[in-house]
From TrEMBL:
It catalyses: L-proline + NAD(+) = (S)-1-pyrroline-5-carboxylate + NADH + 2 H(+); L-proline + NADP(+) = (S)-1-pyrroline-5-carboxylate + NADPH + 2 H(+). This is Pyrroline-5-carboxylate reductase. GO terms for molecular function: pyrroline-5-carboxylate reductase activity. Residues 8-101 form the Pyrroline-5-carboxylate reductase catalytic N-terminal domain.
């Protein structure tokens, strides 16, 4: 089957589905090949209007004609949603899950069969086409299905295959959850700039432009280690050295390590809960 001609059903039309669907449309994917399902209408109406795709409030209807089913509900709803899908014939369909903390075996249990499953972990910058998604393919996934899953997520950013499922938890810690770490850092910096006398908008401008510039320097200098970029800012005996020493003395590196481990631990716990 042609890569472009698979019918894709999104179960759950929330933030992540919307981002992926809009990315697909922008890249020229045929809208009539995409269906989104959600219990309430407002998000579906917005998608119909903005993307011209098919919508329904009936998950079974969405799945019936689909070659690929994207499972995009909250982890705690996944079991109920998958159990209901068992009422239709699921043979021959590829399942792509974006849920955190539900492993491929568990999804197959929930679906009631050994169907091919690709687990993915995207992040919210996907809504701008700047996403980072990790993917893991279960043994039953064939090459064409792998290619299609990667194609789907590449519509909203970069992709990285992992060969062991446990590494998806590492993707969560490093890329799925991590936009929130950067937001926390920026929030704290903006608050301190405001305490220094800048108004809200001035403080935000200072912080956001520095963050954008720093991120762009990292991206545009792939041959330069990030530590070197840091050193290039740090004049001997200057201001940056004092700020960085404050971070180091407060154990910032260790805190970051602990925070990432806490995200992994929570993903592992979630895999036993749902
Ligand atoms: N927000 C994030 O940064 C990331 C989220 N994820 C995962 O993506 C999944 C979805 O997250 P979001 O899009 O952020 O959540 P969301 O809450 O925006 O979207 C979930 C959608 O599912 C719908 N829904 C509820 N019950 C349903 C049912 N029975 N059938 C069909 N749809 C139903 C809800 O109405 C909602 O529109 C979650 O499993 C989450 O773990 C993954 C990576 C990053
Ligand atoms: O916080 C969460 O559980 C989800 C997964 C990664 C980002 N948001």
């Amino acid at each position: 089957m042609n890569l472009l001609h698979k019918n894709v059903a999104f179960i759950g039309a929330g933030n992540m589905s919307r981002a992926i669907i809009l990315g697909m449309i922008k890249q020229g994917y045929p809208a009539d090949r995409i269906t989104a399902s959600n219990p309430s209408r407002p998000k579906l109406d917005a998608l119909e209007q903005d993307a011209g795709i098919n919508t329904t409030s009936d998950n079974l209807q969405a799945v019936n004609d689909a070659d690929v089913v994207v499972l995009a509900v909250k982890p705690q709803l996944m079991q109920e949603v998958c159990k209901h899908l068992q009422q239709t014939d699921l043979q021959g369909k590829l399942f792509v899950s974006i849920a955190a903390g539900i492993n491929a075996n568990r999804l197959q249990q929930m679906l009631g069969g050994n169907y091919p499953v690709v687990r993915t972990m995207p992040n919210t910058p996907s809504s701008l086409g700047l996403g980072m998604t990790g993917l893991f393919a279960d043994a039953g996934v064939n090459d064409e299905q792998r290619e299609f899953a990667a194609f789907l997520l590449s519509q909203v950013g970069k992709t990285l295959w992992v060969s062991e499922e446990a590494k998806i938890d590492g993707v969560i810690a490093a890329a799925g959850s991590s936009p929130a770490y950067f937001f926390l850092f920026a929030e704290a910096m903006q608050a301190e700039a405001e305490r220094m006398g800048f108004d809200h908008d001035e403080a935000r401008l200072l912080v956001q432009q520095a963050m954008l510039g720093a991120a762009t320097m990292v991206v545009e200098n792939p041959a330069t280690e990030i530590s070197t970029l840091r050193e290039q800012v740090t004049s001997k005996g200057g201001t940056t050295a004092q700020a960085l020493a404050t971070f180091e003395n407060a154990g910032l590196r260790d805190t970051i390590s602990q925070a990432m481990q806490a995200a992994v631990k929570r993903a592992q716990e979630m895999s036993t809960l749902f």
